[in-house]
Amino acid sequence: MLDPQARALLDLMIDKRVPPVHTLQPAEARRFYAERRAFTQPEPPAVAELRDLATDAGLALRLYRPAEGVLALLVYFHGGGWTIGDLDTHDVVCRTLALASGCAVLSVDYRLAPEHRFPAAVDDAVAAVRWARREAVALG
Length: 140
What we know:
This protein has 140 residues and is an alpha+beta fold. The chain contains five helices and four strands; from the N terminus they run ααβββαβαα. The protein has a four-stranded mixed beta sheet with strand order 1-2-4-3, with helices on both faces. The relative contact order is 0.16.
């Protein structure tokens, strides 16, 4: 039996005529994914601090802090099969995760396939964790 929330999402996708992602080219899949997230997510909850950052190599990151002071840090890699998704499509998830956990959340905008072949996304993930460790004091 399918979970009621999953059933509701599938019904909404049918109602909005969102084609199955496997039938789309990557650019189309990204557009539909962003649009779908926009009409299925609640308003973004407020966090104490939101900061767009970048590593020395230019990898985009977004820091969510639910409170002031020294916090544990969770490095977050958004969903999307390494092909779709970005900082904006997972903004509400990261805000909610930061607030619920009491941890700072560092979201990583890793390079996407197929434009960037394996292991580009993995390399970005490793670089982001290393950067976060180096910058831990500045991140709080």
